Model the fold of this input.
Amino acid sequence: MIVLPFKIPKTKNLGVTYQEDRGKFFFDKLHEHDEIQITRIVSGKGTVLVGNAIHEYSDGDIFVIGSNQPHIFKAEVSSEKESFMQSLFFTKYSFGKEFFELDDFREMDEFFLNSRTGFRVKFDKGKLYTYFDLLMAGSDFDRFLYFFSILKLLRKGKIEKLSSFIDNKEYSDNEGKKMRNIMDFTLENYSRKIDLVDVAEIANLTVNAFCRYFKQRTNKTYFTFLNEIRIDRACKLLKNKEYLITEVSEMAGFNNLSNFNRKFKELKKMTPSEYRISF
Done:
């Protein structure tokens, strides 16, 4: 899907590109690029939307985002910390069309398969942090070697898949912009009442056409996606014990406490009270 085509800036003819992003926010528009992205969140917290799913991110997280997978890192507005991200970008053909097809790289098949849905590293990240630290001051050749050391560590181990749906279809620029507008509208307005008429208008579609459009491209209904965003926000708010659960429910966009409790348990397999106690 063409959402917001993004060209990774390259000043040299390199097979793998290293990039650092620092500031109050990361690039906060839904976008995609040809390159597979390996990212370490050095500092910062917020929400990452990948494909058809939404997750929290915080200091120390390491993500792999697949080629042409729509994504956005949305920093928490209230956070006073600087956001700092280190990323490596490469394609399966960065070193030639047959490079990763060599028998030497058979152990990488699982990595490339998992990258299609994107994943978060769940195993011990100590060695990965060491290589990411070395990337900062390394030469181009050093970074090339560290990159393969990082790939070696990522090829196996416990991971959390980020998206549950792989969309292999190609869409026009106009369709991609339409989906980006839907996502931007949802992320900015989830805390208030949203009717299908509102979001269908953003997409310039009838309600029925919008429902079909969204389901085909995300494999879930719009309200399922909206509730996932709201529950993700509720999880963040629940960590602040100054808020009553009724207040959390309202701030996350639910106007009915029983509906909030039901949706929360459906997605998190525990009640909001149990979730709060776990922290």
